[in-house]
């Protein structure tokens, strides 16, 4: 199925709510290009760029990096995919970032993955990551086929430095204080679609159905006529 125009989707939710996991499924099912602010920052840290070195302590302490730094990074990356439909994960995280994004493009819809904090705390300490691709695993939920290795490349998996219990608590606090107002920002514009639950496998069918309708409204009409 080919999209009839370019779609721009933002995915939001607390740390560990499953944004990366859901994004992987959206990419596979709908072919959107995934752009993750956290993956971009971690790639900069791994490559030891000036920006990566500057931002590492901020991220490891569970604080947000400054708005101007992350906005510049994301907007530069967005320019290279402006002819594609995309899914933006982890940006915007403050109202200032949301206003910056509004200044450069119009977003079609905002998906909010709403998972209780208690569920999240248990998940994040057992997360494993393939750094080059951003593929995520969890020893309870979706373990790799071979322990410690990525299913696709066979390369080693790592644990994120910010997945310690204390840092997770700080990340959830900063989500409450700085990112929840962004949900209100999009809700007031009528753009927010919230999907609540404690299991990605139960939330995903609803997101999939919503995006199918949004991205392929013509199919709905065909079904309606039949
Ligand atoms: P990130 O990288 O954007 P967060 O904190 O927003 O980080 P995170 O931790 O990447 O979000 P996620 O993507 O929402 O979480 O969740 P995930 O990785 O898919 O799933 C979490 C774990 O749960 C995985 O192990 C997965 O397998 C498992 N899982 C999924 N579903 C289920 C389920 O149903 N059951 C179970 N049992 N497990 C499941 O940002 C990192 C940092 O970068 C900076 C900040 O410092 C931030 O803290 N940053 C920004 N700073 C300022 N502005 C921005 N815009 C920034 N963006 C990033
Ligand atoms: Mg993520």
Automatic annotation (TrEMBL):
Compartments (UniProt record): Mitochondrion matrix
Pfam families reported for this sequence: ADK (PF00406), ADK_lid (PF05191)
Catalysed reaction equations from the record: a ribonucleoside 5'-triphosphate + AMP = a ribonucleoside 5'-diphosphate + ADP; GTP + AMP = GDP + ADP
This protein's UniProt keywords: GTP-binding, Kinase, Mitochondrion, Nucleotide-binding, Transferase
GO cellular component terms, A-Z: mitochondrial matrix
UniProt enzyme class: transferase
Location of region: NMPbind: 36-65
EC number: 2.7.4.10
Domain Adenylate kinase active site lid: 127-162
Region LID: start-end pairs: 126-163
Coiled coil regions, renumbered to chain: none
Binding site for AMP: 37, 42, 63-65, 90-93, 97, 160, 171
Principal subcellular localization: mitochondrion
Listed InterPro entries: Adenyl_kin_sub, Adenylat/UMP-CMP_kin, Adenylat_kinase_CS, Adenylate_kinase_lid-dom, ADK_active_lid_dom_sf, AK3/Ak4_mitochondrial, P-loop_NTPase
BP GO annotations: ADP biosynthetic process; AMP metabolic process; GTP metabolic process; ITP metabolic process
Ranges annotated as spanning the membrane: none
GO MF: AMP kinase activity; ATP binding; GTP binding; nucleoside triphosphate adenylate kinase activity
Binding residues annotated for GTP, in chain numbering: 16-21, 127, 136-137, 200
Family: Belongs to the adenylate kinase family. AK3 subfamily.
PANTHER family documented for this protein: NUCLEOTIDE KINASE
Record text about domains: Consists of three domains, a large central CORE domain and two small peripheral domains, NMPbind and LID, which undergo movements during catalysis. The LID domain closes over the site of phosphoryl transfer upon GTP binding. Assembling and dissambling the active center during each catalytic cycle provides an effective means to prevent GTP hydrolysis.
Assembly description: Monomer.
Function: Involved in maintaining the homeostasis of cellular nucleotides by catalyzing the interconversion of nucleoside phosphates. Has GTP:AMP phosphotransferase and ITP:AMP phosphotransferase activities.
Name of the protein in its database record: GTP:AMP phosphotransferase AK3, mitochondrial
Gene source species: Salvelinus namaycush
């Amino acid at each position: 199925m080919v999209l009839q125009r370019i779609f721009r989707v933002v995915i939001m939710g607390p740390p560990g709510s499953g944004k990366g996991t859901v994004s992987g499924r959206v990419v596979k099912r709908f072919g959107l290009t995934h752009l993750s602010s956290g993956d971009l920052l971690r790639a900069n840290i791994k490559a030891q760029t000036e920006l990566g070195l500057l931002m590492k302590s901020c991220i490891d302490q569970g604080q947000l990096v400054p708005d101007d730094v992350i906005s510049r990074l994301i907007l530069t990356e967005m320019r290279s995919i402006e002819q594609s439909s995309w899914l933006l994960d982890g940006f915007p995280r403050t109202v200032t970032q949301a206003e910056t994004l509004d200044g450069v493009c119009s977003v079609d819809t905002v998906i909010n993955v709403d998972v209780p904090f208690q569920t999240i705390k248990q998940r994040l300490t057992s997360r494993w990551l393939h750094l080059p691709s951003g593929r995520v695993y969890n020893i309870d939920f979706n373990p790799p086929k071979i322990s410690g290795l990525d299913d696709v490349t066979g390369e080693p998996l790592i644990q994120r430095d910010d997945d310690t219990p204390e840092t997770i608590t700080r990340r959830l606090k900063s989500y409450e204080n700085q990112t929840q107002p962004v949900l209100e920002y999009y809700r007031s514009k009528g753009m927010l679609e919230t999907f609540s639950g404690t299991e990605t496998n139960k939330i995903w069918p609803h997101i999939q159905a919503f995006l199918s309708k949004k991205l392929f409204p013509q199919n709905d009409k065909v079904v309606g006529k039949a």
